[in-house]
Amino acid sequence: MRILLADDQAIVLSALRALLDLEMGMEVVGEATDAEALLAQMRILHPDLLLLDWTLPGLGAMGSVAALRQVHPALQIIVISGLPEARHSALDAGADAFFSKVEPPERLLAAIDGCERAAHV
User: Alpha-carbon torsion 21, 31, 107, 77, what sign?
Assistant: First the structure.
């Protein structure tokens, strides 16, 4: 699974990359720190999955998940956030899954696995 990371915090990007680099069948193909870079990366890289920071700079201006789906309709999107209360908003906006940054990494891996299985149905 080709994964694109989008978060404005370097430490989060590093932690996500370190976690995913250990997993078989998962390849981090790129990173973005704002919405403009995210759109450019999506057009070039055509990832299978996006790990998207809910508060990524510039994301609100482009309409969030709906706008990303227009660029890449088959893209699976897992919203990540340090605010667990953002879960409902993210899922209502069309995210395939939600991961709180305070949850254990195993929960993120399970969400990724769920998205991967859903994509192959």
Answer: negative
